[in-house]
User: Fold these one by one.
Assistant:
Number 1:
Amino acid sequence: AQTVTQSQPEMSVQEAETVTLSCTYDTSESDYYLFWYKQPPSRQMILVIRQEAYKQQNATENRFSVNFQKAAKSFSLKISDSQLGDAAMYFCAYRRRREDYGGSQGNLIFGKGTKLSVKP
Amino acid sequence: DAGVIQSPRHEVTEMGQEVTLRCKPISGHDYLFWYRQTMMRGLELLIYFNNNVPIDDSGMPEDRFSAKMPNASFSTLKIQPSEPRDSAVYFCASSYWTSGFFSNEQFFGPGTRLTVL
């Protein structure tokens, strides 16, 4: 069974600084997707960034980037120029990629989350 | 598009009562997921549907929980009878399949915070 581990329950960063959130996962699959979701106090789950395992290049979305190390099964999120609005719970998630229709490939497996605080 | 709609946003009930949570997925999405979020267990999948048919309900905790999807635009999650340990935030999410590719993103609703006294 696939598992996702976030070893940092809480992190803190100074506004405008850079912070990295860690995530490791375990799978026997070779092709899959990885995601980072943000959950602010409003509880809404917001997709921050995604990575396809077959792509060598690390995904980037504005101030958010990932360091994807497939062999190490590591998927960290780097937030540059942190802003007060970045304060939230961040969840790492995994989904295997099997493009056959139906089946059980659809669900996301989440880590327990990292609570990020941003200090002004 | 209004996004995934869930109701109610908050529900407080007493132990033993029946609780029904509702979800309207994004129009055109053919996958619907129900998740539960607690401090102890984090986010966990309860059940998901494809074209209104339950595909995987292995996450449903026990027989007190049931989910239905009578049509493409509506799903319910029912707990009967409810217990205090069911207190959690319940999320509904939807996704779609197109051109043979499963979409990369699940779109989440705002969640229902359930408190069972």
Note: Chain B has no helices and 13 strands.
Number 2:
Amino acid sequence: KQEVTQIPAALSVPEGENLVLNCSFTDSAIYNLQWFRQDPGKGLTSLLLIQSSQREQTSGRLNASLDKSSGRSTLYIAASQPGDSATYLCAVRPAAGNNRKLIWGLGTSLAVNP
Amino acid sequence: DAGVIQSPRHEVTEMGQEVTLRCKPISGHNSLFWYRQTMMRGLELLIYFNNNVPIDDSGMPEDRFSAKMPNASFSTLKIQPSEPRDSAVYFCASSFGEDNEQFFGPGTRLTVL
């Protein structure tokens, strides 16, 4: 059974720092992995989607990597800003079988302090 | 595009009442997902539709929950009768193809007293 874990649950950093958020999954047979951002009281915004054949995806100051063999993905945020404060969730889609729905982590709550 | 639209944004009701949540997916998307989010359990998929047909409703908690998608631009999630433990934020998401990137609505915050 696929399980997704995000550690730490919460992170607080000063503005300008580069940081890494971690996502681990137990079954390497995945179709894709997606990173989302959720602001308090708001919906989820898709940040990056990495297909199983890809190693990384970049969007602006964000870079997501994927290492299927070790069951890990990281979201790198460069030069963090207070506006990056939010909860970041990762979700994994299994590669095969009848149950192809996204498996979600509980998220990392990020606070970037000015 | 306006994105995924959900209504109402907030709902407060009393135990035993019927609650109907509404969702309009992004135009052109053919997959629609209903999620529930709580602090304790995180995000849970309740049900999803492909081309208006329910594909997987294994996440629906019990018979009190039902969902419909009468056409490509509208879906409802109904709880009858509602209970305090149903209090959560309910999200609707849509995608073009069930395996592709999902786009979420702003959610409905439901409080059952």
Note: The radius of gyration of chain A is 14 Å.
